[in-house]
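To: structure desk
From: M.T.
Subject: fold request, one chain
Message: Could you run this one when you get a chance? Sequence is below, nothing fancy, just the single chain.
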Amino acid sequence: MTGGPHILTVNVEEFFHSGALEGTLAPKHWDRLEPTLGRSIDACLELFDRHGARATFFVFGMTAERCPETIARIAGAGHEVASRGYRPRGLRGQDEAAFADDLARARAAIEAATGQRVVGYRSSPWVDPRGLWIHDVLAAHGYRYDASINPAYRGFRRYPTRATCHEIATRHGPLAIVPVSTVRVAGRRIAFSGGTWLRQLPEWFVRRAFERWLASHAEPLVLYVLSWELLEDKPRLPTGSLYDRIRLYRHADRTRERLVPLLERLELVPVRERLGLAPEPVAAPESARTDARTHDAARPVPAGPSPAATPVSLVIPLHNERATLGYLERTLAGLIEHVRDRYRLHLLLVDDGSRDGTWDELRERFGRWPDVTLLRHETNRGVAHAILTGIRRAPTEIVCSIDADCSYDPYLLPRMIESLGDAHLLTASPYHPEGAALNVPRWRLLLSRTLSRLYSLCCGLRIATWTSCCRVYRRSAFERFALRRGDFLGIAEMLVETALAGGTVREIPATLESRLLGRSKMRTLRMILAHLAYLGELVRRRLGGRGPDRRALASLGGAPGDGR
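Reply: Done. Structure tokens follow.
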């Protein structure tokens, strides 16, 4: 492996698979976020073709199953497709048997998409010295090389490993090791040749590092890029720390800028070709070809419910939520499929005076869906008014509501519906002793918890959360509710007046998560003052011996339940 062309590799992944989002983005969100994989692969293929470069694309088996046409395009353009295992972050916690099963599942999916034998592997994430046992398993299953080592990765400073391409002996035969290229600076290795390092390091340092490598090594340079780094309009998601934010977003457009001169200067080929391994055609099982589906561009349209499913309505208020609609669309499609045997969901999407194109986008995304009613306020009236509009137009007695940003997981709704019982209203409660909040700013939690405690004191009721929009209502108890307070304050008003009138209110524990897309519409100072004014009114009413606000409260006589 001395002299000759250099190696170009691509880690094929969605931007939301990035390890920088691991602390704030659970795997359950991956299917709900709109995919950008097709666009990022198009960008890679176009750029490489223009400069005559070919690469090894390391692909997850999960991706090959869901986007087989995209993976087939990579192979059809003359590039190698190798394995990253079945799913992101999959190596962690695996023993040899589990790893072997993961390898087999990923290989089957990739070979079904490409028709070529998979002979290479790169782990997700990089392996440290404790993970080098995978080499014996790879060799045992016919893999010819491993590209999982980043010598700059933690643990390798004191571990005797070669930082260039080389071959090792395993219990099952030889295996080529293809680490990413590094340079030593002050006794430490720095991976200058790809990913975050290529984007973040100063231009003069990167240029000198490449010159130093090319002048001092006979072995090939190993470049790597992440497929989403070549996207021009990467979505922004919240990260857990400043470090993660830098990794993901700082100099996000610099990869292409620094990669192009290398594509122009160097002869770049796939790992397989550099190792002298000829492509091996394989026949994909008929079942794999038949079941293959592409999720790249198709928008989801839910299937119909089971004939025995119970009709239930779901109201979703929206105000300037265009940025979240793709996420909401995919989440609702999954939810409808998830509950189809138990519930037939009728969606009522209420655009509350948006000015960002939300209404047009709603009609585009949900216009073909069955059981959907699109409603619109010409002016912004507030989230509580939007929910009431939906309740009044709902075709069912049981009506749920959730936030458009899905900060409460909509998959909680079946349990909430089943827990409603004879109550007039049931609310999701992150402040319940068994509830939780994830990645929510501490100041917001302190504010919300404090307001909920004040409402409990003023009303003399033990309810942990008064301000959640994730609820289940009985339409007959709220369709004539005369809301006096708009915006988020109205959410508290609906619960307060119902409880003070003797209506049955229940809550169940839930997890509140930070918003992933778009921006919160809450005006914090104005909302605090409004809540304090309402709390003051409640205190005066209680001291004066007055009951619930009859101007606001609907008649509860027709609904079940006698007390709290």
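Reply (cont.): The first strand starts at residue 6 and ends at 11. Let me know if you need anything else for the meeting.
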